[in-house]
Each structure stands twice: as structure tokens, then as C-alpha cells.
Amino acid sequence: MGVVLLVRHGQASFGADDYDVLSETGWAQGRLLGEWLAARGVAPDVVVRGDMRRHRETAESLLAGAGWETPLEVDAGWDEFDHLGVVAADAALHGPAGELPHDRREFQRLFEQATARWAAAEEGVAYPETYAGFVARVRGALGRACARAGKGGTVAVVTSGGPIAAAAAALVDPTGDDQAVTARLWSRFNTVVVNSSLTRVVVGSTGARLLTFNEHPHLEGEHLTYR
Question: Are 196 and 8 in contact (CB under 8 A)?
């Protein structure tokens, strides 16, 4: 049975000029996860990361913490959707437009409202990427990772909360016939994904199945963050 380990990136730099950079906490989270996995004998055959800086830096900290000398590959299918673009596009229609809030709670409130309308394919908003396009992209990346894992391999994927939530929703509702149902699942998963958390997917004769979601026993205190 193959295994795909989905790792959310460490804490990025919320409120900074460049969000796509790990904070000191984010670097530590990646190292802690690597140490925790290595201590339990986990050794992936390959590490696949999205094509974003926070993915690269998390992969680097993960490998350093684990002491793995593992091939590293890039698959942009695991990139996060443009969450700032989605919130800004939604604010332009629903107001008030302008600079996005730096307060985490206020931003989270706007984020959840904006992504709910994005996932519902609300008309009249010029989103940088449609929700349907995002989900199709992630499903493709998940399929490639599962194929790499095969019957007995292990693939570690470093990505973001949005793609992990989309993958989990796809595994819980594999047909995806009702986009409203899939979108609700995605939203529920997406709001609780912890930085550097681990989600396990098993690949067997009947296909891929979600084994665990959002594991984070390697984190406590100040190292436990959501954004």
C-alpha cells in the first residue's frame, strides 16, 4: 500500500510586504515535523513541493530536521490559490475596497466570506483563478502523487492549506458531482489546517483514501499556528 503525506507549509509572513516567506516560527515548524517523522522511521522516496517560496523553505526545513537525503521535485499543481487576489476581488464588489486588514481575525472573517462566494462561483467577480479550475488542478496533482506512491512507496508533498483541503474534500466526495457539497467540505477543511500539519492518504487496490487529516503532535505552545 502506498502513502502520500500532505504537509502544509510553515507559518508565512502575514502582514509583511512579501507573505510568501517563512517566519522564524515557520522554519522551526518544518524542522520539528522532520524530526518527528524521522524519529518514527518515516523516510519518503521523494519529496514533492509546490512552486512557491514558502513551499521551498518548508521543504528545506523539513529535510534538515529529518536528516533525509531525499530527491526533491517541484509540481506547481500544488500551489495555493491566490488568496489575496480572491479577497481583493470580492472586496471590490462587496466593499469596502482598499487595503486589506492587517488584523488576523478581521482578515480571517473577510477571507471566509470571500472564499465562500468564490467557491460558489458567484458571477460578476473577476477572480484570478476560478474555484473549479483550482480544484481540477489539485486533483491532477493528487493523482500524480498517488501514482508515484504506487503500491508500496511513500511520497511527501509540501503544499498549502487550500490544496490540502481540496484534496481531502476530493477523497471524501470522490465523484464531486455536486460542487456545492464539495465546496462546503473544502471550506470546513480549509479553515482548520495547521501550519506544518500532516495529512495522510493511503493508496491501495481500490484507489486513494483519506487516512488522517491535520495531524500536528509535533507542535505545542507558540509553534501551533493557523496563519
Answer: yes
Provide the domain limits for residue 87. Answer: 82-128
Q: Which residues have C-beta within 8 Å of that of residue 213, sequence separation ≥ 6?
A: 168, 189, 199
pTM (predicted TM-score): 0.92
Query: Helix, strand, or coil here: 72?
Result: strand
Q: Give the neighbor-by-neighbor strand order of the sheet with 207-215.
A: 72-74, 46-49, 154-159, 2-8, 198-204, 207-215
**pLDDT at 106 (0 to 100):** 77
Q: What angle do CA 37, 194, 75 make, to 5 degrees?
A: 70
In this structure, the answer to whether residues 142 and 109 fall within a common structural domain is: no
Q: How confident is the model at residue 58 (pLDDT cuts 50, 70, 90)?
A: very high
- Distance of alpha carbon 115 from alpha carbon 69, whole angstroms: 38
Contacts of 195 (CB under 8 A, 6+ apart): 8, 9, 10, 11, 25, 26, 29, 219, 225, 226, 227
Residue 120 has pLDDT above 90, yes or no: no
Cell numbers of 203, please? 493508496
In a shared domain, residues 60 and 168? yes
* 105 and 91 both lie in a single domain: yes
pLDDT of residue 137 exceeding 60 = yes
Q: Is 55 in the same domain as 141? A: yes
* Closest residue by Cα to residue 166 from 178, 149, 184, 154: 184
Nearest C-alpha neighbor of 95 from the set 108, 112, 114: 114
